Amino acid sequence: MILQSTVARTENIRSKTGSRSRWYEWKRGLPVYLMLLPGLLFFIVFKYVPMGGIAIAFQEYDPFEGFLGSPWVGLQHFEALFRDPDFWMLFRNTLLISGINLFFFFPVPIILAVLLNEVRVSWFKKGAQTLLYVPHFLSWVVIVSLTALLFSTQDGGINNLLSTWGYERIELMTNPHYFRWLYLFQVIWKEAGWSAIIFLAALASVDPTLYEAARVDGASRLRQIWHINLPALRSTIIILFILRLGHVMDTGFEHILLLQNALNLQVSEVFDTYVYRVGITQAEFSYTTAVGLFKSIIGLFLVYLANQASRKIGEEGVY
């Protein structure tokens, strides 16, 4: 009896101590939880709650009847999408622009971060970073408008200069052959510097003694980049690449819409602009929700495959 009483008393003390310890840990972490709260609310309100609207992809949605009163039509809208004569054009254009982004733009911030990391003059490095970050804060309206003004066929500044020198004027904004490369150049100019920040942060965490050991072994700057910097960036590159695959069907609605015109429509019309043109201007809400769901399913599938592949090669992936 005495032994049982002692054990019970000990368990009671442990329980109180454990409760006090958990309360202390929770209280200690309260500032962090409060910092997380705005981000958590953002995702709940703007990401998770709107997912309920996916239901209208399977309905003939009527704004006056609402979600509950609109009739269910099953996969009718998906069938209409796949039968649409423009489907393969949209699919091709979206994949080509995403491919350009993925294989031409994605490496640029990595290269830029490595180059900036090698700069040893502090004032020059800070000045270069500032100049590279500034375009990110300009809107696409400003960037596309400046391009249109400079390359206008009739009175654009650069075209006037080319004409003065005896060269032909460049129809940059209206020639379909220039559209994708113009899009790529503008994306690189606007976002490359800003996207390099996360890679610079990863390089800043590299142990300086690794560079010292490499120099002692006679490694050149290029060897240090190859054997120290790039391996340090490997996990970050893989995670960001996987996340970018999730947006492979998102090509940047505002940017493409501003570059789009009747002459380049065959190469510039993508799912994002198609959803705007059909869903907003023609009020086909259910149909364009089905288009959006189709895009999301492809993105989810690619993320899953890429994540599985990354785990096969020994990386953690995103989950």
CATH class of the largest domain: Mainly Alpha
* Secondary-structure-derived class: mainly alpha
Write down the overall mean pLDDT: 87
What is the annotated CATH architecture of the largest domain? Orthogonal Bundle
With helices defined by DSSP (H or I, 4 residues minimum), what is the helix count?
A: 16
Inertia-based shape: globular
How many structural domains does the protein architecture include? 2
Largest sheet: none
Element order: H for helix, E for strand: HHHHHHHHHHHHHHHH
**What is the CATH topology assignment of the largest domain?**
MetI-like fold
GO cellular component, one term: plasma membrane
Transmembrane segments: 30-49, 95-119, 131-151, 181-204, 225-243, 285-306
Domain ABC transmembrane type-1: 91-306
Protein name: Sugar ABC transporter permease
